[in-house]
Design brief:
Length: 152
């Protein structure tokens, strides 16, 4: 199977607001599984119902609006980051299903409703991506029978 790589540029505007929050344990676990499968790569996760794109990296997930928010500087163009989720996992996490503290960084005003929608619509999309990756990894191939030779 051939592979290709996409290079995207994202601009981080000045912070508008930062708030403490938590991420559901299942979402954080799926995030870690996706990163493990990618071996350090970034993952693009489209949230089609919102026309947003999530970019999953090891330290944060950034969200960009697919329909707007484009910037250009020094001959380079790219999308503007709207929201970033930055987890702050603790070593004393009581359970794998427990919430994980995080910071939600807003780069534009009036994104509270967008944040609420992302919290409800991003986790199922991430879960579906993981399921598709799992199915690709475990495709059934034609069995191979190898005769066992007797030791001499």
């Amino acid at each position: 199977m051939s592979q290709y790589f996409v290079r995207e540029t994202f601009f981080r505007p000045p912070e508008y607001a930062r708030e403490p929050s938590t991420l559901p344990g299942a979402l954080y676990n799926d995030w870690l599984l996706l990163l493990k499968k990618g071996r350090g790569k970034s993952w693009f996760v489209p949230v089609r119902s919102m026309q947003f794109q999530g970019v999953v990296e090891d330290k944060e997930i950034i969200f960009v609006d697919s329909q707007g928010g484009y910037a250009h500087r020094d001959g380079v163009g790219g999308r503007l980051i709207r929201i970033a989720w930055r987890p702050m996992p603790t070593a004393d996490r009581a359970s794998l299903t427990g919430p994980v503290p995080c910071e939600i960084v807003h780069y534009f005003p009036d994104l509270q409703e967008t944040q609420r929608r992302l919290m409800s619509e991003f986790p199922p999309v991430l879960r579906q991506l993981l399921q598709r990756r799992r199915e690709q990894d475990f495709q059934v191939r034609a069995p191979r029978v190898v005769p066992l030779r007797r030791p001499v």
